[in-house]
Amino acid sequence: MTPRLPAIDLAAALAVVLIWGLNFVAGKLAVTDMPPFLVTTVRFVGVALLLAPFFRPRRSQLPGLLILAALLGAGHFGLLFVALRGLDATALAVLVQMGPPFAVLTAWALQGDRPGGRQLGGIGLALVGVVVIALESERASLGSVLLAALSMALWALSNIQVKRIGALSPLAMNGWMSLMGAPMVLGLSLVFESGQIEAMATAGWLAWAGVAFTMLFSSVVAYTLWYRLLARHPVSRVAPFLLLAPLIGFSASALFLGEPVSLYKVAGGLLTIAGVAVIELGGRKKA
Fold it and tell me: How many independent structural domains does the chain possess?
C-alpha cells in the first residue's frame, strides 16, 4: 500500500493545482485588456526582477538557458497567451493537457524512449478529446486550437532542454529564463502587436490583477512548492495531482468568467484527461 503524503505536502500539492487551475482565469482577464505578447513580456520582467538578482547559474549553463528561453518563454508561454485570446479559458484548460502526450512522443522521437501500448492508447484517447473540442470551434478560433497544440509541443521540447542544462535551482532557472525570454517576447510584441502603451494605460484593475497572479503565484509560489514536492517524493506520487488543475480551471472559468459549458467541452475534456491519466499510469508501471 502506497503511504499517504504528509498533511503539509498534501496541502502544498493542492495549493499548486489550485493556483495553476485559477491561472487560466487570470490569464484570460489579462489578455482581454492587453495584447498577449505584451502580457507575457510584463510577466517575464516581473519574474526576472524578483528572482534573477538572487540566483546565479554557472557560465556554462547560460547558452542552454538561452535556448530554454526561446522554447519555453517566447515559444510556449508566448503562444499560449495568444491562443488564450482566441479561446475560452475552459477550452484551453483542457488543451494544455496535451503536454504529457507530446512529452512522450518527443522522448520517443529524440531519445528513442519508446512508449508502451498503454501509453500509446492514452495518447490516442487524449487526441480524440482535443478533436472533439476543436469540432466545436469556429474557424476564427480553430487557429487558436492549433497554436495551443504548438505551444504544448514546445513545452515538451523544453523538458528535454531542462535536462541538458543540468543541476540548477528551479528558482534560478525560472528567473534567468524570464530574464532572457523577456526581450524575445517584447520583440514579438513590437512586430505583431500595436498600441502597447495605450493598452497598459487603459487596462482595468482586473487585467493587472491577472498579470500579478500569473507572475507571483503561478510563476514563483506554485513552481517553488512543486519542485520542493518533487525533491521530497517520487514523481509518481505527486504527478497525478496535476490532473486536478484542468478540472479547477474548467470550473473556475465557467463560474468567474461566465463561459458556456457545452457538451463538446465536457466530452472532450473527459476524454483528454482520461487519456493523460492512462499515460501517467502506463508510464509508472513501465518504470
Answer: 1
